[in-house]
Amino acid sequence: MYSKGVLLALALAFAGCGENSNVPLAGDIVAVAVEANETAFYATEQVQMTATAGYTHDIPDRNVTENVTWYESNNTVATVDAVGRVSGAGTGGDVEITGSYKQFGDSVVLHVYALETVQIIAPELNVPQEQTLQLQALGTFEDGTELDVSDSMLWILGNAGESNATLEQNGTLYTGDANGTLEINVTRYDVNASIRINVTP
Amino acid sequence: MVTVCLGILQAEPTVHFGVGGIAATETFKVHNPLQDTQEQSALLQGVQIKAGYGDIRAYAVEADLGYGRYDKNIFSGKDTDYIYFDVSLIKAFDFDFGFYPFFKVGFGTGELEIRRTLTNSISSGSFFAGAGLYVPVGLGFDLELSGIWRSKSWEDLDMIGAQVESTSSLFEPYLGINYRF
User: Fold this and answer.
1) For residue A8, is it within any domain?
2) Is the pTM of this model over 0.90?
3) Most C-beta atoms within 10 A of its C-beta, which of A112, B26, B108, B121?
4) Average pLDDT taken over every residue of chain A
């Protein structure tokens, strides 16, 4: 009786040893694809990367931008953050941006145009006290393109002295209540420009 | 649990070992992301060995180690070995019929070998309850016939920011033989 039981058990086990050929019920991942909303951009701008997972079983593709790990091939050209936002880092050139999840990954090569020069444009250089003046930073990139980079630069107000003059980070200058000369600087990526505004009575 | 332990202490407990097999149709429910739940049945065939302590006429505790295969792929294109482990509490009765009916409840865990892109195994947890008979055949041996209803919950499968969620259930008939010292 014992041997019959063992034989039955073994028969049951070996009956299921072949490989199954049906399509599994659970879907699986096919690939992760990465794309950028621009393949070339100016250093003061940003590009948004998107990662999309593709699946079997007609499961709709899914945006997995915030699930993948992003990294750049050269952080002197551009850097990418955890949500796939790419920012120029100063140097122009090509940079490969990769989004990966375990063994899945995909890359896109982006070209960054470096900022070469910047100049500050002021509507006038002699301005009365307590006036507001909109300054503009005009950048020139390595491909010769000129763009308003006012919102991308660091604006610095020098030698304000006793004056209550202020300078906002979009280039808006308040001349304050004292006569004198205000020195305005803009800088980014070691590209600088300066201008002097004379505050008059 | 306390009742079982007290029952074992009051009875004439012995150690027993057993071997047996199961063949059962298991119904899977798999929920892929952004899709309706899908169902499929697969035949599970397996063998298991067990060790227990207790009285064939009263209470016992058992641990089972099993190996099985499904006749269909559920979680991947190559589902293969299923190893499972159960712990059971048993209450048997002696009605002088020449066999001993029993109830059993328990829980288990298992691991199925699969071939997915991100993992090669999926684990399961289960609860079960059922009933059966011990039929003594002499020389310390007894045949065991039982059936349990088992509910399994399977590990979620990674789909990158989403999961495949799966459950299954089955009525699991068992035929085996035990030896009691």
Assistant:
1) no
2) no
3) A112
4) 89
